[in-house]
Amino acid sequence: MGMNLPACFVSSWTGSRLRTPLRGERKCSIGVRARTWRCVAAPDRAVMTGQGLEPGDIFTTNGIRQSKLVCTIGPKTASKEMMLQLAEAGMNVIRMNMSHGTHEWHQGVVDIAREINAEGKYNLGLLLDTKGPEVRSGDLKNPIEVQRGEEFCFTIRQSDSKGKAPNVTEVNYDDFVNDVHVGDTLLIDGGLNSFLIKEITDVDVITECIDGGTLTSRRHLNVRGKSASLPAITDKDWQDIEFGLRNEVDFYALSFVKRPEDVAELQRFLSEKDDDALVLAKIESAESMDYLEEILDQSDGAMVARGDLGSEIPFEDVPLVQESIVRINRGLKKPTIVATHMLESMITYPTPTRAEITDIQTALQQGADATMLSGETAGGQFPLEAVNVMATVSKSVFGADLEEEYIEDAPIAGEDSGRASIAYSASVLAKNVDAAAIVCFTRGGAYAIEASSTRPHVPIIAFCPTGADGLIRTLSLYWGVNAYPLEFSSDPEVTISSAIDHLKSKGIVKPKDYVILASNVLVPSTSRKVQTLQVRMIM
């Protein structure tokens, strides 16, 4: 049955920004503070399709990879040749780690990414990850070997310190002596070395080494269970954000978020600049645990930064926090990236540990939209192998079964209940008729994001108006969504025909396949919108 409405496809979103409709929509029960949303974890099952598609799509010739992959670009991967190979292997979003490199260096990464996107084969998103308020040790002339039981001094002023050389180093944060207490455990680089605080003076923190090793310059310092009293966005961060504005990056990952106000500050700044980028809260501080739901409610998505998080809270709590964040954001329909130590061993070795494989699978079974590689692709010896491993493992975790219990929670009352019902029904129909894909026509991303939140067993193809490059890149982070530009006609049948031709050309569908079409159209001669859902057989 055709869609006999001759109006253009329109989004039901209020305005062009993705951020507004994503905030404060729903919450879920996570065991932190019970709410009324329940999410279904993805089962461990592989779905083989045999569909031949272009490299870089979320599809592969031997399966479907619905989750997305974020890769950190570093010295090993900053060439066009390497970035193309990463995209071919499965990279969806490029991460720029502003803790390292100059603006000039990162500009080279941006330019290559834009050049690759302009060639039309890929739509790589750009994520700028702020350095944040880090506490670090000072410069050392030579590395210091510290043995268990030895005294070591961390000082805010070397000239006034009573620490005994060589076991002394400066700290770059004057309030360090006020933030720590006797009995606290000081961790170096997340726990490579640890020290018990024994005494505090006006300028010195005297410690006893618990876990020894080699201490080098500019090491990251954490106190377990505490966060430093530093602003969430530093002067350097603002300079980096201005760099991101000039280059129209798609996502900002805000480091060491403690409260929702930290996220709101950056969102206000971007809004004033008329910038559409999404702000992802990096959950990595102890203080953020007290405001977790509020932070996620305020933000446009989240990154579970497990390295620093595991330094500030008991490490055994990290898996529970990860699961909670993923479930909250599933309910809020916001993307979650699980990051840090995903394939750490592959920095040095060409194959992963079995524990790392299980870790990736667990994150995806919980419902994470994306996993992230850091040192593995920034400076590791086997960046392409790491991406291939991540993509292969991701294909073995495919979607969530649409259980009867989930039906009770999906369509709810509210301004978006119609859209949510349509998206959920599209997923049910796709399963019932064994469709090849769910196809959305969207000007703002709403239908694609709704469909993504239901975790259907088929790919979600989002057709966006020609020229909506920013929206297409933004959708690159959402689970299962593959976005393409399309010229929208005033005649819906022309638009649908063009979309189906595109699907055929990419090998996504073939004759006698079913597709589910979801869209929002204007009724002729009125301002009323009608949300439509169709099942079509490809001819």
Question: Descriptors for this entry?
Answer:
539 residues, TIM Barrel, M1 Pyruvate Kinase, Domain 3, 8-stranded parallel barrel, 6-stranded mixed sheet, disordered N terminus
Descriptive report:
This protein has an 8-stranded parallel beta barrel, surrounded by 8 helices. Strands 8-7-11-10-9-13 form a 6-stranded mixed beta sheet, covered by helices on one side. It is an alpha/beta fold. It has 3 domains: 134 residues, Pyruvate Kinase, Chain: A, domain 1 (3-Layer(aba) Sandwich); 230 residues, TIM Barrel (Alpha-Beta Barrel), CATH 3.20.20.60; 80 residues, PK beta-barrel domain-like (M1 Pyruvate Kinase, Domain 3, Beta Barrel). α6 runs parallel beside α7, α10 crosses α12 and α14 crosses α15. Helices cover 31% and strands 21% of the residues. It is built from 17 helices and 23 strands. A hairpin with a 2-residue loop joins β1 and β2. The relative contact order is 0.16. The radius of gyration is 24 Å and the shape is elongated. InterPro entries: Pyr_Knase (IPR001697), Pyrv/PenolPyrv_kinase-like_dom (IPR015813), Pyrv_kinase-like_dom_sf (IPR040442), Pyrv_Knase-like_insert_dom_sf (IPR011037), Pyrv_Knase_AS (IPR018209), Pyrv_Knase_brl (IPR015793), Pyrv_Knase_C (IPR015795), Pyrv_Knase_C_sf (IPR036918). Its EC number is 2.7.1.40. GO terms for molecular function: ATP binding; kinase activity; magnesium ion binding; potassium ion binding; pyruvate kinase activity. It is an enzyme of class 2 (transferase).
